[in-house]
Specification:
The protein is mainly alpha-helical. The chain contains 21 helices and no strands.
């Protein structure tokens, strides 16, 4: 098992680093740009990128996933002609569709801004970002090819450079007085850099091996890729719609863009810690596929149950700590004008507790040969999320214009928990698994007890006026969180929440700091 894992997870550390850098850059971007633009302007970025993201669904048609699949298969078959045909077919379709949709978005920008969102200023921002659809079309083909070749280091480096350029240029242009347009141009230039780098890596690291190969008939390869890619696109579309629809509906119904700003801050804070479960899933998904191929359902059940429990064990104290300390965290990072983001954040953080179970259950369904189940559940969740947002956002705005973000948070959290419940039920049924609720409740209990102590401690610091000023507030948060973490670890040991099979599972995963994590788990188990 260990040899299989080491073979299949080669490069997963690079993926983890890439996602971690992405999360850090996203946080830094939101902090710096939100502070510089202010609550009345920052929301335009979320709305603009939401529109681009949803239009981008139709650009790719699931071709990035299809490219990775067929490139990998062609390499295994040593069929360079077929491999070249798949790359060319993907590139041709992506360029044509990407260019077409870029032009359409550019031409319809003002109509969308006026008729859908009733915010005329949004038009110029949509036109500025329309090239992202074309650049992303080119980049995705070559990035998917790198993944198909298992060149995860190159894939991660391109992404990291893209993220850093995006942040640096956005901040620079906003400082120079370009405002929202400057921040969005940073996104565009980041995509441009990523696209150029992906072409460079393809030309110098992959194309030399394909020089003598003549591509097979592109029309045949195109049909094959679209047939595979469309179901994948449906699933990806559901995820993207789920991630953006709340902001777009909120923008359409709210008179002031500041409410989108507040909601964007809350949503971004929830998403950051979840990079942990997504990164662990990078290693978990190939394990599912390997164990399913070997028909070893017993080992698969044990791995799935332990991974869910361990992810919650890691995430729970972070989420509880961020909920308890959210007023102080938002004040420190974003300033007092964003303090109203606390309430939607607390509501949204509730689905963070369930995210690991949803993530790994999805991998179980896909890895055991029924990925269409994922697409159906994600599609249902996206439709439900849209309907609830359409219902709840106007309802809450009618009570008070400032309640719109709370309605969006309730709609998103409710739909996600319902979708997660269905996904977990089907995954458990698929492999006859039973999540250890007793053990999960132990970790939740330890996290909430530690959170209660953090809350009391922070209240004491506030009453003693030890949180006045940015520097004092920063140190107060660090000290409070460390105290909570120590209490949480003590309670885990006291509750005997760590099991021997948890440690065994971690040994078989290729994840960063594995030895350190195992050492801590062994100490807690004693």
């Amino acid at each position: 098992m260990k040899n299989i894992a080491n073979l299949m997870f080669k490069g997963s550390t690079w993926v983890f680093v890439s996602r971690l850098v992405d999360g850090i850059v996203a946080l830094l971007f939101s902090i710096l740009i939100a502070r510089m633009l202010g609550v009345d302007r920052y929301g335009f970025i979320g709305v603009t990128m939401g529109v681009v993201g949803i239009v981008g669904i139709f650009t790719h048609l699931g071709l990035p996933q299809a490219t990775t699949k067929y490139v990998s298969e062609s390499i295994a078959k040593k069929d360079n002609a077929q491999l070249k045909g798949f790359i060319y077919a993907s590139l041709l379709i992506e360029i044509v569709v990407g260019a077409f949709l870029s032009i359409i978005l550019f031409l319809l920008a003002d109509i969308l801004a006026l008729e859908v969102f009733n915010k005329p200023e949004l038009g110029i921002f949509l036109r500025l970002t329309s090239p992202i659809l074309f650049l992303g079309a080119i980049s995705n083909t070559f990035m998917s090819t790198l993944v198909g070749y298992h060149k995860m280091r190159d894939f991660a480096l391109i992404n990291i450079f893209n993220f850093v350029v995006k942040l640096a240029l956005a901040v620079f242009l906003v400082i120079r007085g370009f405002g929202v347009a400057g921040a969005l141009l940073g996104f565009v230039f980041g995509w441009l850099v990523g696209t150029v780098l992906s072409v460079f890596f393809y030309l110098f690291k992959i194309k030399p091996y394909l020089k003598k190969a003549f591509p097979t008939k592109i029309s045949v390869q195109s049909k094959k890729m679209i047939k595979f890619g469309v179901p994948m696109a449906v699933s990806m579309a559901s995820i993207l719609i789920y991630e953006w629809v709340d902001k777009l509906v909120l923008a359409a119904f709210s008179d002031e863009i500041k409410y989108v700003s507040l909601y964007s801050i809350a949503f971004g804070m929830v998403a950051l810690p979840l990079v942990i479960s997504r990164s662990i899933n990078t290693s978990f998904f190939p394990i599912v596929s390997a164990l399913d191929a070997k028909k070893d359902r017993k080992k698969l059940r044990q791995t799935y149950e332990s991974i869910v429990r361990l992810s919650m064990l890691i995430l729970n104290p972070i989420l509880v700590g961020m909920i308890v300390l959210s007023p102080q965290i938002i004040k420190l990072l974003y300033g007092v004008e964003y303090e109203q983001a606390v309430y939607p954040y607390i509501i949204l953080a509730l689905w963070g507790f369930f995210r690991p179970a949803h993530t790994f259950a999805g991998s179980v369904l896909a890895g055991t040969g029924i990925p269409k189940k994922n697409a159906k559940i994600d599609g249902f969740t996206a439709v439900l999320n849209f309907c609830l947002n359409i219902l709840l956002i106007p309802l809450f705005i009618s009570m008070n214009s400032g309640y719109g973000p709370i309605g969006a948070a309730l709609a998103t959290t409710s739909s996600y928990i319902i979708g997660m419940s269905i996904m977990v039920h089907l995954a458990n049924k698929r492999i006859q698994a039973k999540l250890p609720l007793h053990n999960i409740l132990k970790t939740l209990g330890a996290a909430f007890l530690a959170g209660f102590i953090m809350f009391i401690f922070m209240k004491g610091l506030i009453s003693l006026s030890l949180t006045s000023g940015i520097l004092m507030l920063f140190f107060a948060l660090i000290v409070t969180f460390l105290i909570g973490l120590l209490i949480y670890l003590f309670l885990l040991s006291a509750f005997r929440a760590i099991r021997e099979d948890d440690i065994t599972i971690i040994r078989n995963l290729e994840i960063p700091m594995k030895k350190r994590i195992i050492s801590i788990l062994i100490k807690l188990k004693r």
